[in-house]
Amino acid sequence: MLLRYQGGPGMLAWAFHRISGVAIWLFLVLHVFDIWLAGVNPVLYDEVLQVYASPIGRVGETLLGAALLYHALNGLRIVIMDFWPAMTRYHREMWAASWVLFVLLGIPVAVQIMAPAFGFDAPFRFGE
Amino acid sequence: MATITRTGRARPQGGGWELALWYLMRLTGLGLFVLALAHYLITHFIYDPSEQTAEWIINERWGSIAWRTVDWLMLTFVVFHAFMGMRTVVQDYTRGGVRTLLTMGLYAGALVIFALGTIVLITLPFPAGAE
Fold first, then answer.
1. Which of B14-23, B26-35, B65-74 has the lowest mean pLDDT?
2. ipTM of predicted complex
3. Residue B50: its chain A contacts at CB < 8 A?
């Protein structure tokens, strides 16, 4: 059902957009709930954050980042075509460009988040 | 004449609530492009999840009304965008009573998540000495 709908060159873009969107929705529900815990049960909240900081948690956050980045880039491509229909001629080029950006931006983010799971310092530290 | 797009939903014809939703999905999407990606980068490049205790939220992340305002704006956008997106998914795959039930469930869920987020944003104490 997911792959049969709509068809055409935009089908993969659409399917990924839907899958990443549902995944982000699931995380949103979890995330608002855990932040709510910070107010009502800080001890439990801190324990949940230990899970986020664990190797498994970091894999999850990296996947979340991938879903976010894809959904953001493809969403931008949709908005460009919807508000500037002449750009629809370049939908394939924009699809390719979104993957180039996905890889270029995504790899440093993945390295940043996963490094502590392998015992390395996170490479980028903009905080104090 | 329908407006054809390559991956987005066609702009609803005739105006009304569905057209407003169509625009609002795109506008909140643009807002979240900045707000959500910035939020993700802040929590992974300026800080690390290993230091994000409840105390850290009080003293650093939500230490000022300005940051809480930004995050409340993000909460508003993301609850709308995520739950209305799920409504589209539900409407694509279900019909009749199941569709009505799931859609109502999504609206109720959106209210609960928005309320929980708003409550913690307002009630979490400020660090001692902050305005």
1. B14-23
2. 0.91
3. 49, 53, 116
